[in-house]
């Protein structure tokens, strides 16, 4: 399963959030971006349960994150 997580951060927190994200197993890459979101992270997991664990229990608790939107790859 592949998903992209669009992340907003508090002002001044992009670098520290990126460092934390890059240390999470399952996060294949995380980049700062310009636009409506501050960071895009790509995640690869075996199933929806593992994805949920990463997004809710690891990413969602990072200090400095103010919001996320998760986009799951469509099987087309």
Describe the fold and architecture.
With 76 residues, this protein is α+β, with helices and mostly antiparallel strands. The protein has a single domain, classed as Alpha-Beta Plaits (2-Layer Sandwich), CATH 3.30.70.920. Helix content is 28%, strand content 37%. It contains two helices and four strands; from the N terminus they run E-H-E-E-H-E. A four-stranded antiparallel sheet has the order 2-3-1-4, covered by helices on one side. Strand 2 and strand 3 (39-44) form a beta hairpin.
The CATH superfamily is Lrp/AsnC effector binding domain/regulation of amino acid metabolism (RAM) domain
Strand content: 35-45%
Mean pLDDT: 97
Q: Give the topology string: H per helix, E per strand.
A: EHEEHE
Pick out the low-confidence regions.
Answer: none
Helix content: 25-40%
CATH class: Alpha Beta
Q: What does the oligomeric state look like here?
A: single chain
CATH-derived topology: Alpha-Beta Plaits
N- to C-terminal distance: 13 Å
Biggest sheet: strand arrangement:
2-3-1-4
- Shape summary: globular
Structural class of the secondary elements? alpha+beta
How many strands appear in the DSSP assignment? 4
Number of helices: 2
Domains (count)? 1
């Amino acid at each position: 399963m592949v998903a992209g997580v669009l992340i907003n951060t508090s002002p001044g927190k992009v670098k520290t959030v990126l460092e934390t994200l890059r240390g999470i197993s399952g996060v294949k890459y995380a980049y700062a971006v310009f636009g409506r979101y501050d960071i895009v992270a790509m995640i690869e997991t075996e199933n929806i349960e593992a994805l949920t664990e990463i997004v809710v229990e690891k990413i969602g608790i990072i200090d400095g994150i103010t919001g996320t939107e998760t986009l799951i790859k469509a099987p087309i």
